Structure formats: structure tokens, C-alpha cells
User: Fold this.
Amino acid sequence: MALIDDIFKGNFAAGLALGVGAIMLGPTAVRTMGSILRPAAKTFIKGGIVFYRETLSELGEMATDLVAEARAELDQETGSEAAQEHHAAA
Assistant:
């Protein structure tokens, strides 16, 4: 901030010229920075989407495996209970 204070304190014309120059070059600088940063931002977003899809896919596989294991355990428990009832009835 000292640099800006020194510019405006030293010479009003220099400060005015700097302000006008910033106003005139501002849109060009913003466009230039946008054209540079836009591809980087798109790449970052694409990476996030790929990461999300892979993570969601892995979570889906884990959930499917857990459901299959739970069903197998239930079938096994039901099967052993049915076998015990069959032996008890005989």
C-alpha cells in the first residue's frame, strides 16, 4: 500500500495517469487472464468429475458386495434352521 500512497502523494498527474491506464487496460487484462485460467479451470473440473465417478462406482460395488454377503448369510441361517427343524420333526 505504501507504493500506491507514494504515487498519489508525489504527483497528482502521475496518479491520474496510472488510474486511467488501469481503467483502460483492466478489461484487456481480465480477458487475457480469463483465456489463460479457463482451460486450467476446465481441466480441474474434469478431474473432479472423473474422481467423483470412480469413487461412486467403488462405493456402489462395495454396497453390492455387502448386500450379497448379507443375503448369503441369511440364506445360510435360514437353511440351517430348516435343516434343524427337519431333523427335529423326524
About this structure: Helices lie at 2-10, 12-89. The first helix runs from residue 2 to 10. The chain has two helices and no strands. Residues 2-89 form one domain.
